[in-house]
Design brief:
234 residues, alpha/beta, Rossmann fold, 6 helices, globular
């Protein structure tokens, strides 16, 4: 297992993620990887849902001895990964029950119209006690709070194909249909059999000095608790 200190190495980040994955990916991954290192033992299986070739490279280097399964709806996004699964995972997957030790869902859930279906499926394919890590924009970030106060629309929620009413003018949307606040995400996951054990805020554009509830983005770490009984249906 790579030592946690290596995640702070400048060359590691610039060459492997900052350059290949882009600026917006770097801050959240720097905060997520050290926690994931404690969850992933040698021989464990990691599901990278909505992953890319770039995220695969990061996980491959960070977690030697861990099997990485890259899942995406677009085949070219995961070309060259060790295990490539191209399917519409938003509702149902081909994986058997209790298949994964950890699932990483990086900036995916906000693009789904019915996120409940995916979370129910992840509850099924994760082992009891397995971990789900979600990175996603925060609806109640400080910019959105000021925007609403003065009559502007949230910057990261887009009911239309075009982003209207934003402080930053009219732009093509990023198709964000399911954007949560931090407490809402916690409640959402716990409805479907997960127990949140850690919440971290981050900025997509550099360092974050804000508390999690006000941050631009959030990283949610949750345990899969199958002993709770039957999960609610979407």
């Amino acid at each position: 297992m790579v030592e946690v200190n290596e995640y702070k190495d400048k060359d590691f980040w610039y060459n492997d993620y900052f350059y290949n994955g882009g600026l917006t990916g770097m801050p959240k991954m720097k905060k997520a990887l050290p926690v994931m290192a404690k969850l992933l033992k040698k021989g464990a299986r990691l599901g990278d849902f909505g992953g890319t070739t770039e995220s695969f490279k990061i996980f491959k280097k960070a977690f030697p001895g861990v099997e990485i399964v890259s899942v995406n709806m677009i085949a070219k996004q995961i070309k060259g990964c060790d295990i490539e699964i191209c399917e519409n995972f938003a509702e149902k997957t081909e994986f058997v029950k209790d298949y994964f030790d950890v699932v990483f869902l990086g900036d995916v859930i906000e693009h789904l119209v019915e996120p409940d279906k995916l979370v129910i499926e992840l509850h099924r394919v994760l082992k009891d006690g397995g971990a789900l890590i979600i990175t996603t924009p925060n609806l109640a970030n400080i910019v959105n709070r000021f925007s609403l106060l003065f009559g502007f629309a949230p910057t990261n929620y887009h009911p239309s194909e075009w982003r209207h009413g934003s402080l930053f003018g009219v732009k093509h949307s990023s198709w964000h249909k399911s954007v949560f606040t931090v407490p809402a995400m916690k409640g959402f996951l716990e409805t479907y059999g997960f127990k949140v054990f850690k919440k971290v805020g981050f900025s997509y554009h550099g360092r974050n000095f804000l508390p999690t509830n006000l941050s631009e983005g959030m990283i949610i770490f949750a345990r899969n608790i199958k002993s709770k009984g039957k999960v609610k249906k979407a």
